[in-house]
Amino acid sequence: MRRFLHGLPGVDAVGLEARAAALRTRSIKTSAKAHAIDLAISMIDLTTLEGADTPGRVRSLCAKALRPDPSDPSVPRVAAVCVYPDMVEEARAAVAGSGVAVASVATAFPAGRAPLSVRLADTREAVAAGADEIDMVIDRGAFLSGRYLKVFEDIRAVKEACARPDGPDAHLKVILENGELATYDNIRRASWLAMLAGADFIKTSTGKVAVNATPANTLLMLQAVRDFRAAGGRTIGVKPAGGIRTTKDAIGYLVMVNETAGPGWLTPEWFRFGASSLLNDLLMQRRKLRTGRYSGSDDVTVD
C-alpha cells in the first residue's frame, strides 16, 4: 500500500492552484446560468449538523429540501438531507417517497476518535434507521503516521456495515478532511486509498475545521476520480463541503467538474455540494434571472 501510494505522481501545487483559479474565471451565458443554478440546487446535500439540532429543525430542513422555494414549484428538489444518526428516522419519515435521500454522518463524526467497534455501531444504527448514504471520516492520525493499511481496513469495515439485508446498501462517502492532511500529495494519496477501499464518493471535509473545500483541493480530487476510472476502476463521486456559500462559487465548481472529470459527472449521482447556506443564494439568483430584480434574504426561508 505504501509503495503504491507513494508511487503516485507528485502534485505541482503552483500548477494546480493556477488551474483552479483559471477555471473559476470562466463566464457562462444567461440561459446556461439558469441551467447551472437548477443543477446546483439538485446537487445539494442540505445539512444540519449542530449539537442543538431538534426533530423540529430536521423536519423544517426536510420541508425546504422538498420545496426549496414554496412560491415556485418549478425549483428542483435537493439531492439529500444530511443529519446526525439519531435524526435519521425523523428525516426518513419527512422525505419518504420523495426521491430525496437521507444522508447521515457516522463513525464518530467529526473527529473520528472512537474505537472501530463504536464507529461501526454508529454506522449500522444509521443504516437501520433508514439512511441511504453514510458520510464517514477517516482516521487522519493513522493516515498521517503512515498507517495506510489501517485506514484502508477501516473504510472496508464501514463499507460492509453499510450493507442492508432487506434493500439496497447505503452509499459510502469517505471524508478525507483535506485541511488536516497538510499537503496536496497527501490529499491525492488519501483519495486513491479511499477509492481502492470501496468508497462510492470522496468528500473534501467535515465543514468543522478551519480549511474545508477549496477549488484547488476539489480539483485534485476530481483529477483522482477521473484517473481512477481511466485505470479501470469504478466511477466515484466527489463532494466538496464547507465554505461554499454563493452561486458564483457553485457555478465555478460545476465548470471545474465539466472541464476535469467530464460532463458525465455533472449529475447528483456523482457530484454533490455539502452545504447549508448555499441554497438560499441559489434561490435568490434564480429569482433574479426570472424577475430581473434581487429579492431580499428575508424572501427565502431560514435554514
Chart the SSEs and their pairings.
Elements: H1 2-6, H2 13-23, H3 30-42, E1 44-47, H4 55-66, E2 80-83, H5 88-95, E3 101-105, H6 116-128, E4 133-137, H7 140-144, H8 148-161, E5 171-175, H9 184-197, E6 201-203, H10 215-230, E7 237-239, H11 247-260, E8 273-275, H12 278-291
Helix pairs in contact: 2-10, 3-11, 3-12, 4-5, 6-8, 8-9, 9-10, 10-11
Essential attributes:
single chain; 303 residues; alpha/beta; TIM Barrel; eight-stranded parallel sheet; 12 helices; 8 strands
Note down, in words, how this protein is organized.
With about 300 residues, the chain is an alpha/beta fold. The protein has a single domain, classed as Alpha-Beta Barrel (TIM Barrel). The protein is built from twelve helices and eight strands. The protein has an eight-stranded parallel β-sheet. Helix 6 links the parallel strand 3 and strand 4. Helix 3 packs across helix 11 and helix 8 crosses helix 9. It is globular. The model has no long low-confidence stretch (mean pLDDT about 95).
CATH architecture: Alpha-Beta Barrel
**Care to count the β-strands?**
8
The CATH topology annotation reads as TIM Barrel
Determine the number of helices (DSSP H or I, runs of at least 4 residues): 12
